[in-house]
Design brief:
binds phosphoenolpyruvate; TIM Barrel; alpha/beta; 11 helices
Length: 255
């Protein structure tokens, strides 16, 4: 079902005490959410269970992991499985963030495998896609993003799409302070929806939640979220301060 979501990706920030204080601050100012307007918090692995205990009685707030292993269990030192993540209280996992693709050489094949193991273990997937600046400058961003989605997701069966959220995050806008214009975001989101419509049919595409990510903040969230095909945001830097994250959640509530 298509819903609006504001998701905060803490990346490698916040120890347990800092994370606790941040979540407490968010919960203090949180408006009443509903099935159509939800919040997801993605702390580091080590904070997942603690964050879950903080939010478990709050309706429509969920915990996400920022990554999961391609494997289910075994001799994979340093890895964390989708099963462990789900067991610790998360209901989502972010897969394919550009930082994972770039710094940890995560390939399309690995991301497809991670998506499978996440879904098999009952997690919903926030699947990231987005082009680097060179691709945007060359004007081939639609093809680039389409190829990422096909490689990572299009092996899935129709019924699995209910557990997929797509996050469009142009790499040139992540952590740079440079946001895609609302027109650029809308154009790409409409393209993404059309790609899903061609593969899975219009009803599935219409039900798909597509988030925008890249220097989203309280001052630009309302304009971005007003776009017809933008269903909320995946937020990095601005998710680390309760008042900024709440400002973005407010923009979702008004949209
Ligand atoms: C992100 O990394 O997912 C992101 C959107 O970061 P920022 O909001 O800081 O650009």
């Amino acid at each position: 079902m298509r819903k609006k979501i504001v998701a905060g990706n803490w990346k490698m920030n916040m120890n347990l005490d800092e994370g606790h204080a941040l979540v407490a601050g968010i919960l203090k100012g949180l408006p009443e959410l509903n099935a159509d307007k939800q919040v997801v918090i993605a702390p580091p692995f080590i904070n997942i269970q603690h964050t879950f205990y903080q939010i478990e009685d709050v309706d429509y707030v969920h915990v996400a992991a920022q990554n999961c292993s391609t494997e289910n269990a075994g001799a994979y030192t340093g890895e964390v499985s989708a099963h462990m993540i789900q067991h610790a209280g998360a209901s989502y996992v972010i897969i394919g963030h550009s930082e994972r693709r770039e710094y940890y050489n995560e390939t399309d094949a690995m991301l497809a495998q991670k998506t499978d193991t996440a879904l098999d273990n009952g997690l919903k997937v926030i699947f990231c896609c987005g082009e680097p600046l060179s691709v945007r400058d060359a004007g081939t961003e639609n093809d680039y993003v389409e190829a990422q989605l096909k490689a990572g997701l299009f092996h899935l069966h129709k019924h699995q799409l209910a557990n997929i959220v797509v996050a469009y995050e142009p790499i040139w806008a992540i952590g740079t302070g440079r946001t895609a214009s609302s027109q650029q975001a809308q154009d790409m989101h409409a393209h993404i929806r059309s790609v899903f419509a061609a593969q899975y049919g219009q009803a599935i595409a219409d039900g798909l939640t597509i988030l925008y990510g890249g220097s989203c903040k309280p001052s630009n969230a309302a304009e971005l979220f007003a776009c017809a095909d933008v269903d909320g945001g995946l937020i990095g830097g601005a998710s680390l301060k309760a008042e900024e994250f709440l400002g973005i959640i407010d923009a979702m509530m008004q949209a």
